[in-house]
User: Fold this.
Amino acid sequence: MIRPPDDTHDPRLRSWVESANAPGHPFPVQNLPFGIFRRAGSRERPRVGVAIGDRILDVIACRRAAYLSGAAEPCDAPSLNRLLAAGQETWTTLRAELSQILRDGSYRAREMREREGDFLVPATEAELLLPAEIGDYTDFYASVHHATNVGSMFRPDNPLLPNYKHVPIGYHGRASSVVPSGTPVRRPNGQTKAPTAESPSFGPSRMLDYELEVGAFVGPGNPLGAAIPISEAEAHLFGVVLVNDWSARDIQGWEYQPLGPFLAKNFATTVSPWVVTMDALAPFRVPAAARPADDPSPLPYLSDGDNIERGGIALTLEVWLCTAAMRHRGEREVLLSRGGFAGMYWTLGQLLAHHASNGCNLRPGDLIASGTVSGPERGERGCLLELTWRGAEPLTLPDGETRRFLEDGDEVILRGWCEREGSVRIGLGECRGRIEPAV
Ligand code: MN
Assistant:
């Protein structure tokens, strides 16, 4: 079941961690996202943290002080995998307890504030690592606008393939190259062949792109051979992160037929460090995007009332770019696009149910990404391939620089947040990556 909001979402709640109460801060007490951190430059064992304002709460330190119950025990680990495996009941209990100890006026507030250094680490002093050990990473293609745009570049007469509106399209990505925000991204070398070239060549990609996506971390998962019904899909979704599925379009164009993406996409995938839980997203659930009347209905295994009524997420997503020249002059990044996640053709619940529908076993820590999030408007296109129409319509930046694809030194920053009347805005934070020259 998609969980309804509860008292942890009460917009009147404030935290005794003052910075969490600043309007628009991504991590107020209503959010409570989970991540893995250690003090920067230290050799400490990585541990589970919860972002609160500009601080990180050390979850296991709170457990040792008996401020949290046994629900926090799975956090005694260097990754979120044990917590992901523990399941919905544990997640909800732990969230309620964290909300209690972090809210202003709670009976713990004074005690914790006096011993703040035992429980809180300033975010600026922390290094944020991958949230989970990712066993498998799957990338979908769930935006019909992205699929139509990309399809029409390659097949103007027949942009959307006949399967698209029936079956969620995806491919198995590579988990080993998923990296946390801030990790430099090396321009890949690869085999390419320009349409006019007689034969292929090998060298640095000249059509390097980002893809704005949302990723979901899988919770308990399913045994091999057993499916996950759509009605239970949400209980297997722990939470979401921003995902940048870096893509080398020239390598992709030459290699993708007949088996799909391979080296064009597995050289790096960046994720944001804070996992915003499905519980935190409860106030921002919206109906699954309405389909045009003449589109086919999803098959029964991909449809249930809960998914139709609340399967979507009202999440706003942005892409920002800072070039080397801009950085050199001390200028801020510029906005490239802004779009919404609620318009996706398939919901996260549908993607998960489909993935397990053949008996494929999903495991705690698996990462499922949505595919590029694009909307119908030009300013909602989630990659340069679409924004520049494969390079045919270069972008002109405010300083006069132009971009068809990414240049060395470019830094791409993804941001996301949820906002709704009557609720406190929560954010996903940032997902950053800067392009380094090819080897
Ligand atoms: Mn992708």
